[in-house]
Design brief:
Layout: H1 10-23, E1 30-34, E2 43-48, H2 55-71, E3 75-81, H3 82-87, E4 96-99, H4 106-117, E5 122-126, H5 145-150, E6 157-167, E7 175-185, H6 191-209
Parallel strand pairs: 1-7, 2-5, 2-6, 3-4, 3-5
Antiparallel strand pairs: 6-7
Length: 216
Protein backbone atom coordinates (compact mmCIF):
# COMPACT_ATOMS: atom_id res chain seq x y z
CA UNK A 1 0.00 0.00 0.00
CA UNK A 2 1.36 3.41 -0.95
CA UNK A 3 1.61 6.44 1.32
CA UNK A 4 -0.82 8.93 -0.16
CA UNK A 5 -0.48 12.69 -0.07
CA UNK A 6 -2.59 14.91 2.19
CA UNK A 7 -1.80 18.24 0.56
CA UNK A 8 -2.59 21.54 2.20
CA UNK A 9 -4.42 24.05 -0.05
CA UNK A 10 -2.24 25.29 -2.89
CA UNK A 11 -2.64 28.95 -1.96
CA UNK A 12 -0.89 28.13 1.34
CA UNK A 13 2.00 26.51 -0.56
CA UNK A 14 2.10 29.53 -2.87
CA UNK A 15 2.40 31.94 0.06
CA UNK A 16 5.07 29.72 1.60
CA UNK A 17 7.17 29.69 -1.57
CA UNK A 18 6.77 33.45 -1.96
CA UNK A 19 7.98 33.89 1.62
CA UNK A 20 10.95 31.58 1.05
CA UNK A 21 11.78 33.43 -2.17
CA UNK A 22 11.80 36.67 -0.20
CA UNK A 23 13.79 35.06 2.61
CA UNK A 24 16.42 33.64 0.28
CA UNK A 25 16.52 36.60 -2.10
CA UNK A 26 19.99 37.47 -0.84
CA UNK A 27 21.33 34.06 -1.90
CA UNK A 28 20.60 34.50 -5.61
CA UNK A 29 21.50 37.11 -8.17
CA UNK A 30 18.42 36.50 -10.33
CA UNK A 31 15.89 33.84 -11.31
CA UNK A 32 15.10 33.89 -15.04
CA UNK A 33 12.22 31.91 -16.57
CA UNK A 34 12.12 31.39 -20.34
CA UNK A 35 8.44 30.53 -20.59
CA UNK A 36 6.46 28.29 -22.90
CA UNK A 37 2.76 28.04 -23.73
CA UNK A 38 0.62 26.69 -20.90
CA UNK A 39 -2.66 25.05 -21.92
CA UNK A 40 -5.89 26.10 -20.27
CA UNK A 41 -8.09 23.60 -18.41
CA UNK A 42 -5.37 20.95 -18.20
CA UNK A 43 -3.41 19.23 -15.49
CA UNK A 44 0.37 19.52 -15.75
CA UNK A 45 3.20 17.03 -15.46
CA UNK A 46 6.19 19.25 -14.69
CA UNK A 47 9.58 17.64 -15.34
CA UNK A 48 13.15 18.90 -15.15
CA UNK A 49 16.75 17.80 -14.87
CA UNK A 50 17.62 16.60 -11.37
CA UNK A 51 20.95 17.82 -10.05
CA UNK A 52 20.77 19.26 -6.55
CA UNK A 53 19.24 20.06 -3.19
CA UNK A 54 17.38 23.11 -4.49
CA UNK A 55 15.48 21.24 -7.24
CA UNK A 56 12.22 20.98 -5.27
CA UNK A 57 12.22 24.65 -4.31
CA UNK A 58 12.96 25.70 -7.89
CA UNK A 59 10.14 23.47 -9.15
CA UNK A 60 7.71 25.23 -6.79
CA UNK A 61 9.04 28.61 -7.92
CA UNK A 62 8.62 27.62 -11.58
CA UNK A 63 5.15 26.24 -10.88
CA UNK A 64 4.00 29.55 -9.40
CA UNK A 65 5.79 31.91 -11.78
CA UNK A 66 5.75 29.87 -14.98
CA UNK A 67 2.47 27.93 -14.83
CA UNK A 68 0.19 29.43 -12.17
CA UNK A 69 -0.45 32.71 -14.00
CA UNK A 70 -1.90 30.81 -16.96
CA UNK A 71 -3.07 27.53 -15.48
CA UNK A 72 -4.96 28.31 -12.24
CA UNK A 73 -3.30 25.58 -10.18
CA UNK A 74 -5.37 23.68 -7.62
CA UNK A 75 -2.90 21.12 -6.22
CA UNK A 76 0.81 20.34 -6.26
CA UNK A 77 2.08 16.74 -5.97
CA UNK A 78 5.47 15.04 -5.91
CA UNK A 79 6.27 11.34 -6.30
CA UNK A 80 9.19 10.32 -4.04
CA UNK A 81 10.76 7.06 -2.90
CA UNK A 82 8.85 5.32 -0.12
CA UNK A 83 11.90 5.07 2.18
CA UNK A 84 12.45 8.83 1.91
CA UNK A 85 8.82 9.62 2.68
CA UNK A 86 8.81 7.25 5.66
CA UNK A 87 11.65 9.29 7.16
CA UNK A 88 9.87 12.60 6.52
CA UNK A 89 6.14 11.98 6.82
CA UNK A 90 5.41 15.72 7.06
CA UNK A 91 6.11 15.89 3.32
CA UNK A 92 2.67 14.33 2.73
CA UNK A 93 1.20 17.75 3.51
CA UNK A 94 3.28 19.25 0.70
CA UNK A 95 1.83 16.83 -1.85
CA UNK A 96 4.36 14.00 -1.61
CA UNK A 97 3.27 10.39 -2.14
CA UNK A 98 5.34 7.23 -2.27
CA UNK A 99 6.63 4.89 -4.92
CA UNK A 100 8.63 1.71 -4.25
CA UNK A 101 10.28 0.37 -7.44
CA UNK A 102 10.36 -3.39 -7.62
CA UNK A 103 7.46 -3.89 -5.21
CA UNK A 104 3.84 -4.81 -5.91
CA UNK A 105 2.63 -1.38 -4.78
CA UNK A 106 4.28 0.33 -7.74
CA UNK A 107 1.15 -0.13 -9.87
CA UNK A 108 -0.91 1.55 -7.15
CA UNK A 109 1.52 4.50 -7.15
CA UNK A 110 1.24 4.86 -10.93
CA UNK A 111 -2.56 4.72 -10.74
CA UNK A 112 -2.51 7.38 -8.01
CA UNK A 113 -0.29 9.63 -10.13
CA UNK A 114 -2.66 9.26 -13.09
CA UNK A 115 -5.63 9.99 -10.84
CA UNK A 116 -3.96 13.22 -9.72
CA UNK A 117 -3.41 14.23 -13.34
CA UNK A 118 -7.00 13.48 -14.34
CA UNK A 119 -8.02 16.61 -12.42
CA UNK A 120 -7.50 19.92 -14.28
CA UNK A 121 -5.33 22.33 -12.31
CA UNK A 122 -3.23 19.68 -10.57
CA UNK A 123 0.54 19.64 -11.05
CA UNK A 124 2.69 16.52 -10.64
CA UNK A 125 6.45 17.04 -10.33
CA UNK A 126 8.57 14.31 -11.93
CA UNK A 127 12.28 13.77 -12.49
CA UNK A 128 12.46 11.35 -15.46
CA UNK A 129 16.18 10.66 -14.88
CA UNK A 130 15.37 9.05 -11.56
CA UNK A 131 18.82 9.95 -10.23
CA UNK A 132 20.88 13.03 -9.40
CA UNK A 133 23.22 13.93 -12.26
CA UNK A 134 25.28 16.92 -13.31
CA UNK A 135 23.28 19.79 -14.78
CA UNK A 136 25.64 19.62 -17.77
CA UNK A 137 25.04 15.96 -18.62
CA UNK A 138 24.86 15.67 -22.42
CA UNK A 139 22.16 12.99 -22.57
CA UNK A 140 19.16 12.66 -20.28
CA UNK A 141 18.04 9.06 -19.96
CA UNK A 142 14.28 8.88 -19.41
CA UNK A 143 13.01 6.03 -17.26
CA UNK A 144 10.00 4.08 -18.55
CA UNK A 145 7.80 4.96 -15.58
CA UNK A 146 6.63 8.18 -17.21
CA UNK A 147 5.10 6.16 -20.05
CA UNK A 148 3.30 3.96 -17.54
CA UNK A 149 1.72 7.06 -15.99
CA UNK A 150 0.73 8.79 -19.24
CA UNK A 151 -0.95 5.62 -20.53
CA UNK A 152 -3.27 5.67 -17.49
CA UNK A 153 -4.29 9.34 -17.73
CA UNK A 154 -7.80 9.82 -19.09
CA UNK A 155 -8.07 13.61 -18.67
CA UNK A 156 -6.32 16.48 -20.44
CA UNK A 157 -2.73 16.68 -19.22
CA UNK A 158 0.06 18.88 -20.60
CA UNK A 159 3.66 17.70 -20.31
CA UNK A 160 6.11 20.51 -19.49
CA UNK A 161 9.87 20.16 -19.34
CA UNK A 162 12.37 22.66 -17.93
CA UNK A 163 16.15 22.51 -18.31
CA UNK A 164 17.48 24.38 -15.28
CA UNK A 165 21.00 25.78 -14.99
CA UNK A 166 22.90 27.64 -12.30
CA UNK A 167 25.54 30.20 -13.31
CA UNK A 168 27.63 32.80 -11.51
CA UNK A 169 29.27 34.75 -14.36
CA UNK A 170 30.15 38.22 -13.02
CA UNK A 171 28.28 37.90 -9.72
CA UNK A 172 29.24 36.49 -6.33
CA UNK A 173 25.71 35.05 -6.20
CA UNK A 174 24.29 32.35 -8.47
CA UNK A 175 21.60 33.00 -11.05
CA UNK A 176 19.11 30.29 -11.98
CA UNK A 177 17.84 29.94 -15.54
CA UNK A 178 14.66 27.95 -16.25
CA UNK A 179 14.27 26.89 -19.90
CA UNK A 180 10.70 25.65 -20.34
CA UNK A 181 9.48 23.41 -23.17
CA UNK A 182 5.95 22.41 -24.18
CA UNK A 183 6.04 18.63 -24.74
CA UNK A 184 2.43 18.22 -25.84
CA UNK A 185 -0.17 16.13 -24.04
CA UNK A 186 -0.24 12.74 -22.36
CA UNK A 187 -2.57 11.43 -25.05
CA UNK A 188 0.11 11.87 -27.71
CA UNK A 189 3.03 10.66 -25.58
CA UNK A 190 5.77 8.59 -27.17
CA UNK A 191 8.81 7.97 -25.00
CA UNK A 192 11.30 8.00 -27.89
CA UNK A 193 9.98 11.26 -29.33
CA UNK A 194 9.85 12.76 -25.84
CA UNK A 195 13.43 11.75 -25.06
CA UNK A 196 14.69 13.17 -28.34
CA UNK A 197 12.77 16.41 -27.88
CA UNK A 198 13.95 17.16 -24.35
CA UNK A 199 17.55 16.27 -25.17
CA UNK A 200 17.59 18.60 -28.17
CA UNK A 201 16.09 21.32 -26.00
CA UNK A 202 18.46 20.63 -23.10
CA UNK A 203 21.57 20.73 -25.26
CA UNK A 204 20.37 23.85 -27.07
CA UNK A 205 19.68 25.61 -23.77
CA UNK A 206 23.07 24.48 -22.45
CA UNK A 207 24.88 25.93 -25.47
CA UNK A 208 23.20 29.28 -24.89
CA UNK A 209 24.47 29.23 -21.30
CA UNK A 210 28.07 29.01 -22.56
CA UNK A 211 27.67 32.59 -23.84
CA UNK A 212 30.84 33.12 -25.88
CA UNK A 213 32.27 29.62 -26.18
CA UNK A 214 31.26 27.36 -29.07
CA UNK A 215 32.08 23.69 -28.61
CA UNK A 216 33.61 21.83 -31.53
Amino acid sequence: MIIQAKPIPFFVIKKGVQFLTWLFRGRFNKLVIKKTEVYKNHSYMLMSNHFGFWDGFWACYLCINGIYESGNIKGFYIMILEKQLQKNMFLRYFGCFSIAPGRASISESLDYAAQVLNTPGNVLLMYPQGNLESQYVRHILVKEGIGEITSRITGNCQLIWSSNFVEYFESFKPSVYFNMLDCGTAKAFDINDFTQKINQHHNGAMQKQFRFTHEI
